[in-house]
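Board notes, transcribed. Complex of a protein with adenosine-5'-monophosphate-propyl ester.
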Amino acid sequence: MTETQRGAAIETMFEEVRRYPPDPGFTANANAQAELYELDFEELWAKESQRVTWFEPWKTLLEWEPPYAKWYLGGKLNVCFNCVDRHVEAGKGGKVAFHWEGEPEDDRREITFADLQADVVRFANALKELGVGKGTPVGIYMGMVPECPVAMLACARLGAPHTVVFGGFSADSLSDRLNDMECEVLITQDEAWRRGTTVPLKRNADEALESSSGVKKCVVLRRTQGEVSMERGRDVFWNEIVEGKSDDPQSCPCEPMDSEDLLYLLYTSGTTAKPKGIAHTTAGYLVGVATTHHYIFDVKPESVYWCAADVGWVTGHSYIVYGPLCNGTTSVMYEGTPDFPDKDRWWDIVERYKVDILYTAPTAIRSHMKWGPEHAERHDLSSLRLLGSVGEPINPEAWIWYRDHIGGGGTPVVDTWWQTETGMILISPLPGLTTTKPGSATKPFPGIDAAVFDEQGNEVGPGGGGYLVLRRPWPAMLRGIYKEHDRYVETYWSKYPGVYFAGDGARIDEDGDFWLLGRVDDVMNVSGHRISTIEVESALVDHQEVAEAAVCGRMDPTTGQAIVAFVTLKGGAEGSPEKLAELRNHVGTKIGAIAKPANIVFTPELPKTRSGKIMRRLLRDVAENRPLGDTTTLADPTVVEEIRDRGTTDQTEE
Ligand code: PRX
């Protein structure tokens, strides 16, 4: 984010004077009461660890040797046992774990905790037969089907760390991740439904496996019944391998894991072309996600909670699978897009299951705003009691629209700030306690020491802006980047020694409330998804006709940011609409459809300094239609003028 952008964001926020104090009725029954803020952080995390069932109690709460933390040392537990078995043992086997709704209408399943246990045990037994055991790395490349959480939980049961790869990623992205983690097994499905058409997951997987020879077995779930090719000796169908397997939990007991054993890796974009394998371990992660889920979403035993994210992102890991299931919560899980077959699909779901808590991203809220409130008005949404937002800064207009048109004007809205790396929500209102302000994530969660630092590392006081940092470890924090110690130190711990640098700009107001201002590095946030500019640039220059490419984000009313690419073709060739489509598709193939640029500006030359460095700041100014900043260091100042004349209006057909 440039200074101008940050300045503009700050100005808008200062004009934001609306305040929403908690409703006393809500406060009286809220899970979070004021005492929570009074506990010392060690007392708090010791107390909250009781939320989890331990096979052996932990002995040491925290060992902090910056930049690595270990939590609940000496403890033994199993995540699957906590998310599934213990609820059945407590007599809650008949409670619904997932109301699953497929994208094709009337394709629904109700999965109780007992059903979930049976499915997980059967599948874990099948995985065992394929050679999966404690420590076997497993890749999961699926859509939003119940078998995706089943696969994750079966891995957790066996002590096999997983990496879930979002179904929108391409074959190349999948094989990079499988290779980095050295996965031995891949779990996928024939195809996924998406807006009435299908995504060929198995076909992508086949392509990925051509360059991931470490994967010896590939399990294929039948979802659409679409045709797939199966490689003998390697590929097996899910339904065939579970046939005849026992669903008795004793037949496949939960592996006792150390608190610090690896639970999963989740790859996320950094500032280089290579995604980072963010490592999350067992106990701290589970305590962190279950605790925040309980207090921030005010989940009650009778709640029907819906996190409308995809399991392929961290939000899905923490707040569709591990947090809610650990808390024994009934969730909705929906396979498809919000506008299929019509734009009221979500509201139909909320009404039908009487959802009381909805958690989604600003980009989705803005899409609904664009489609108009009439779709929500056709449904009874009075069951909704609380609304949550995540993934990017929420503009006050969207916040208010969400509260008024979806929440009926009375529900608290919790704007939750966190990251793949943090594992759990770190900055958020506590409903019933916090006076909310549209656009502010408000206060650090109890026990979290967040601050805003200036460039020199001084804490800025109320009213100041700078970089968001965390000064104290928290249970669900990342345990590093897989196999990349130096990169871990460099990315998060080198800007300010001993302090975690989040990569976000933030401002703190007179009340101590945090306003998140977006990324300060070369990472874009498109529809709440993190995409690195360099990753997209690498994908573009990978095309045989591209000589050079520079990529940046521009503001977009729906997706938050949109990707703009400036491309120079080899041999001085001119761009064309066909070339544009070809390059967009090429990026889609290299990374995934989410990374396709919204605009491609073909230019004979990129603006460079005399030493040959691309002037990204100027390209951002062009992309945002801002007056051009200082151009005096440019080798050829006429270049940017020319690029500007070529324009950056939206060229996407979607
Ligand atoms: O820039 C912040 C933004 O999303 C980034 C983290 O992205 P990811 O790891 O993909 O996780 C997204 C879901 C947790 C952050 O560095 N971000 C996330 N939540 C918010 C946010 N920005 C502003 N407000 C938020 N509530």
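The two ends are 26 Å apart (CA to CA). Residues 53 and 86 are 8 Å apart (CA to CA).
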